Amino acid sequence: MIAEDLTGTPGATESAPATGDRVIHARQARTLAREAFAAAGLSVAEAEQVADALVDTSLRGIDTHGLRLLPQYLGELSTGVAAAAARPSVVRDRGAGLLMDAGGSLGVLAGLSAARLAAERAAEFGVAAVGVRNSNHFGAASVYTRSLARKGLVGIAVTSAASRVAPYGGVEPLFGTNPISVAAGSGDEEFALDMATSQVCFGEVKQRRAEGRGLDGGWATDRHGRATAHPDAAYALSPLGGYKGQGLAMAVTLLGAVLTGTAPDWRLSQVGEGSAGESRGIGHLVLALDPAAFTGTESFGTGLTDLLTTVRTAPAATDRPVVAPGDPQRAHARAREAHGIPLDAGTAAALGDLAARLGLPGPVPVSGPAATVTAAAPPATPATAAASAASAASAGEGAA
Question: Which of 11, 263, 327, 376 has a 20 to 30 Å separation from 396 between CA atoms?
Fold first, then answer.
């Protein structure tokens, strides 16, 4: 997680509640996104891939990196920041290690191409790492790691992003919210971590600013590097866990930018500020590990189940049970599949306008159960009963 969202903030992966009065159902959302991308010049297959990535991310409650990005991606295609005709190509191949040039394509298409190639090479070598250069916004990093996990692999992904986060004890933002995602397994036996390396995404700061609410402690610093609770004074985000978060952010920059030969975070343009006809030049790294090359597929599956079960059944300090990464997102997906995806006012308006232009169904007013389906939707199973509490801390690559 990725990466910036419509707010122009890169890389965070937190789920931001969508609390408007309109929803869109998954089927209509997929059709709308697919037709919009096809009209913007993507092939039918590519349009479907990007549409699925955005809708699935919204279903999982990661609103910052789901349908909110649809207008942004269409804007990138219309200005040539993302090239609809681009085809990612391998420019360096060492078997299990490869470098891909995205050709300025949408970051989602570059990430999915890298994940497919990583899966193919991992089947041959046991491990594979695919670096990507000359790309754009990555979306939710878990899109790629979960695609690998569904193939029986362990998926790992990171991406660089335009700077929003100051180093611990520093003043100027140097790093993006630089997400890290790791996934394995599938269904209810899935581990799906997708987290920012900042304390929070900048979109949350902007939301608090619009609502006239103060910031939580440790979220941001002012122009002098001092902690601030005033959203209007927020100049830089704070790294997760102080110097440890800074270290993680630097590690992501090392892997996503330095290793792939792309510009570091502080030299990347923010969303909406790129030059027309020119890729933003973002770098990603996608890794795939085949358990068969290590402990063996069956042994790995048994161990993963033991890990998840042990955590989920651990004694809880409150009335909310302990959850594993990915549990809250699956709870959101079940609720939103049934009742629709809630939309903030801006996204609802943008999707409504797009639907009207394409002559397709769009967002509808909330009615009945859908009124309760926000990013704090109640969990559907005991194992995910803490979904509403854990959702803000778990990430989906998230947003900026």
Answer: 263
Give the dihedral of Cα atoms 74, 80, 86, 91; nearest 10 deg: -120
pLDDT score, position 240: 95
* Alpha carbon distance 57, 154 (integer Å): 19
SS3 category, 169? coil
CA dihedral 297, 298, 300, 304 (to 10 degrees): 130
What pLDDT shows up at residue 370? 42
Query: Which residue, among 74, 66, 72, has the nearest Cα to 357 in the 3D structure?
Result: 74
Please name every residue paired with 157 in a beta bridge, in sequence order, or none if there are none: 181, 286
Q: What is d(CA 332, CA 341) in angstroms, rounded to the nearest whole number?
A: 9
| Residue 242 region by backbone torsions, left for phi larger than 0, else alpha for psi between -120 and 50, else beta | left
Q: What is the pTM of this model?
A: 0.88
What is the tens place of the pLDDT at every residue in 82-107? 999 999 999 999 999 999 999 999 99
Please count the residues of the chain. 400
Sheet of strand 97-101, all strands in order from the earlier edge strand to the far edge: 89-93, 97-101, 127-135, 282-289, 154-159, 180-186, 189-195
At position 269, the amino acid (one-letter code) is: S
Owner of token pair 């803000």: 392
Amino acid identity, residue 121? R
Look at residue 396 and tell me whether its pLDDT is greater than 50.
no
Q: Calculate the CA 206 to chain-centre distance.
A: 18
